[in-house]
Amino acid sequence: MTALFEARGVTKRFGGLTALHAVDFALDEGIASIIGPNGAGKTTLFNVFTGLYQADEGSVTFREQPLLGLRPDQITALGICRTFQNIRLFANMTALENVLVGMHARVGLGLWDVLTHRPRFHATEGALMARASALLERVGLLRQANEVARSLPYGDQRRLEIGRALASEPALLLLDEPTAGMTRGEAGALMRLLRALVADLRLAVILIEHNMRVVMEVSDRVTVLDHGEKIAEGPPQEVQANPRVIEAYLGTRHSGGPRRRLAER
């Protein structure tokens, strides 16, 4: 059976530096986390997955369709959307307007419809507003719909990014360090949101995450990169106790308490 999303032998070089070497990855459902020390190649892999970088070798497919060579907007139109480590909202637009922008890939209006404000335009506009409000409600931000994005607390901005990503109707959502900068309570709320999205919308989610508590609690599977190579993959508890993973994070093998040590990082 072919996975929803699959990467095989992905290699990416920058001059004489090999950032990724023959990385395999596959996901059909649920939440998978990609972890590793700084410089392990995690964000580079995301950039290959979403068309920002082109791989030098290997293949990436989504619903059996090759992705390598496609532009980011073409990949989004197929049903893959991502957020970035640094928040990239439209700071001077409202929360509602940010979500509406995320719907551009699914709007069927032509230029003539917009210029003439024909009945089709008004019907579509009303449907988009209703759907944007529903998405804000899903991520817990409906009351802040008319607030300017830059005025929202940090955790709310992160959730707004996810709401905007959902506006493109993805089947696969890629999140780059979604809990970065969040308090423990905000991270917990985000984990509950992700689980609800997977259950209710049948989304598949790939995370890059440094918060090991989040990784261990929310992931169905964990993939570990180190120096651009995959060194471990499996259920969270199994990966957490893997000697190669402990060595990658701590710099040397420790015989005692690997689960506690990694969970606290």
UniProtKB/TrEMBL annotation:
ABC transporter domain location: 5-252
UniProt GO cellular component terms: plasma membrane
GO biological process, one term: L-isoleucine import across plasma membrane
Keyword ATP-binding: yes
Keywords, in A-Z order: ATP-binding, Nucleotide-binding, Transport
UniProt key word Ubl conjugation: no
PROSITE patterns assigned to the protein according to its UniProt record, in alphabetical order: ABC_TRANSPORTER_2
InterPro entries linked to this entry: AAA+_ATPase (IPR003593), ABC_AA/LPS_Transport (IPR051120), ABC_transporter-like_ATP-bd (IPR003439), BCA_ABC_TP_C (IPR032823), P-loop_NTPase (IPR027417)
Single GO molecular function: ATP hydrolysis activity
Superkingdom assignment: Bacteria
Protein name per UniProt: ABC transporter-like protein, branched-chain amino acid transport system ATP-binding protein
Organism: uncultured bacterium Rifle_16ft_4_minimus_37862
Higher taxonomy: Bacteria, environmental samples
